[in-house]
Amino acid sequence: MIGDYGVGKTSLIRRFVERQFNDQYLSTVGVKISRKTVNILDPHTNNEQELKLLIWDIEGQTKFKAIAPSYLQGASGVLIVADLERKETIEHFIDHLNLCYSVNPNVKIIVALNKADLINEDELNHLFNLAREQINSQIHIYPTSAKTGNNVDNMFDQLALEMLK
Questions:
Q1: Count of alpha carbons within 13 angstroms of residue 14, beta-carbon side
Q2: 55-114 pLDDT, tens per residue?
Q3: Mean pLDDT of the chain
Q4: How far is the C-alpha of 82 from the C-alpha of 84, rounded, in Å?
Q5: How many other β-carbons are positioned within 10 Å of the β-carbon of residue 133?
Q6: Which tops the pLDDT comparison, 164 or 125?
Q7: In terms of C-beta density within 10 A (0-12 exposed, 13-18 middle, 19 or more buried), how is residue 131 classed?
Q8: Which of 53, 84, 85, 118 has the fewest other C-beta atoms within 10 Å?
Q9: What is the CATH number of the domain that holds 149?
């Protein structure tokens, strides 16, 4: 999971793995690793498949960007997170996307536009369309909220399905 600092990467992981939310900001130092097992319907066999996800929460500070590529090299999937309240993080996610593809051209990517609970629907639609214009239509974009849990499971499940394909 990558993105600028303070976009909610850790909160999304905590919501997904622990089913908790805490609105106090704690900056990730380096990388924090979480695990979660999910069951996904395999599109090839139509059978349920158990996947064990190892989720790397990569620090969003500028000083860490130099070593981030080493963490992306072996990734099967990447969640890029932007903060809907900070438009610059939406503009920056294309940089994260390009970094992922430059290091790992076959990686599966999902984009999370986080903190959707904090903006109105018109603004959400505008920012969603802005994000969609920046990337190809093959990449799924989810408006998420770590606070309410909206689309958090859907986003992780979709990434697990993409990796399974």
A1: 16
A2: 988 777 655 556 667 778 889 999 999 999 999 998 888 888 988 899 999 999 999 999
A3: 88
A4: 6
A5: 7
A6: 125
A7: buried
A8: 118
A9: 3.40.50.300
Strand partners, 140: 110
pLDDT grade, residue 149 (50/70/90)?
very high
How many angstroms separate the CA atoms of 100 and 149, rounded? 26
Under DSSP, the state recorded for 112 is: E
pLDDT at 143: 97
> Do residues 34 and 45 lie in contact, with contact meaning Cβ atoms separated by under 8 Å?
no
Number of domains in the chain: 1
SS3 19: coil
* CA atoms of 63 and 59, how far apart (whole Å): 9
Give the tokens for residue 149.
């849990």
Which residue range(s) make up the domain with 129?
2-164
Distance CA 129, CA 122 (A): 11
Could you tell me if 33 and 55 are in contact, meaning their C-beta atoms sit under 8 angstroms apart? Answer: yes
Task: Give residue for tokens 């609105």.
Answer: 23
- Separation of alpha carbons 43 and 164, rounded Å: 9
What is the model's pLDDT at position 131?
87
